[in-house]
């Protein structure tokens, strides 16, 4: 919508040919941004305005062809482009017709035949693609063509129809779903992936991204598909560029972009520029910066020819390693209070490059010395990593030195490094070396065992303290429970004495209302507060005035037995409707509703439902004499009564029909219905009808309202 607004503004101002070129450039930017049939259609129609210029017709055809390639497969919107293209070619055909009564020259005849063939080809191409309302396009072709439709075209058309039937459930699901429709699009993508048509897969991904452009996983899946399957440079790099523009906070998308640029041999300067953009993207965690640096360093390492002792690329790699270490230390640590690389993986990789590829063990040792001073000397795996590097590219003397330091410093798995040291001396060491190693490992392990024993004792003491505390808490709870029980028993004895005085009446009330507690005769509740007000055949039974205290209990116990309770008879469901969402303040609901529903037929009974305080609860049952009256009453659904929409629904026992739902909305495509949103809250049904009836007969308009009757 923003693109179209901008384009239309520019089109209004473009009068000269030079200004038209600027509009064309803007259209080119727009169509590369997102897949949008509306923009392509606008582009093609605008290009028709320049048909008078040199090569104008070919330019229009070129734009139409590009549009069909981009969105011609769009099931619901593609037809409009095909029809616009055909209309353009038909207009060209009209201009090529000879004047009435004149004989066309051979050149004119050839041009006519050529133009007719173009239109035939367009029809045949379109009929081979599954598009909505393709039956109408087929009928139009039959009417337009003087010759019978070729067998191959009919065969392709039938095949496309079958394919359309397979796509329809997914299109209908999208039509009925609420934005952003991610789950529905994912199901559609999975369907197209199984079918395996690259153009259709690309289109459905683009459609999904137009509505879900801030979902990094969707971009990642799309880019992975393009990288592995299509491998078209412009297409791949454009998608990656749009991905990082929409989700710049996602480091994975930047890494994939750098890899794609390297894969497609993009200039080194551009890749470096893109990496700098990534660093400024504002990632949300420190480890993201480690990942992007590692990806860039991998790229730089692959550029170096290590057969040469020195090169520009090698110096750039070393410089980048040094900058990465400094960047994590300064920039990242300042922002996140951590470097994101506690194990110094970047420095480890740098050391490996120096040792294995540059044969520079001196630099590798310096790097490892730096790594160990950053709190890694206590970990056995770090020492063994260094030892393995020395073993492969260094000498025994440095290996032995590293293992001796490891035995001294390691605190997580000292036994492991001790074993490695003894193995080294067993294979390569002298007797003196062996003795020194045994003594060192024994002393170290003895100290370790002593420390562990002390730690175990401390832990056992803490555990014992916890057990004692738990036991104390348990005992306190038991005492509290016992005191509560004793208190309850005293209250129970008092209640028992009261109950004995009350005799049979008290027993009856206790049996009927176990939740009530009697505090004595003076505290008896008034019957009108305690009693559920029922509705009988003769209207609502109101509460009587309170009697003397000695008579209140007896009346309360017998009043429920005297009121005839009316339950809904499910055998009369067919002649009954359920009415709800009425105003709680409605006075005399029987009278008001009877007047309202008598227009549908003879009303036998209206049964409003009241609360235990006698207030109307907003719903009731209306029973008619005949079934047709009940069916007619359903037409009063959503009629406004006292400022609220009244809901009228069939009376169905949900225990017998658990699957019954009052409101059933169509889940299929309804071609004669439009859903309109974004209306002002002041919009009336009449105003909307006035707008719509200009386009055809309006059968019905329904303004959706909330429970209070306000438009949504």
TrEMBL record:
PANTHER family: PRE-MRNA PROCESSING PROTEIN PRP39-RELATED (PTHR17204), RRM DOMAIN-CONTAINING PROTEIN (PTHR17204:SF25)
Cellular component GO terms, alphabetical: nucleus
Record keywords: mRNA processing, mRNA splicing, Nucleus, Repeat, RNA-binding
UniProt record, GO biological process: mRNA processing; RNA splicing
Residue span of region Disordered: 456-566
Descriptive protein name: SART3 protein
SMART domains: HAT, RRM
Subcellular location: Nucleus
A Pfam match: HAT_PRP39_N
Biased composition (Acidic residues): 499-512
SUPFAM superfamilies: RNA-binding domain, RBD (SSF54928), TPR-like (SSF48452)
Superkingdom in the source lineage: Eukaryota
Domain RRM: residue ranges: 575-653, 672-712
GO function term, MF aspect, one: RNA binding
Compositionally biased spans, kind Basic and acidic residues: 456-481, 542-566
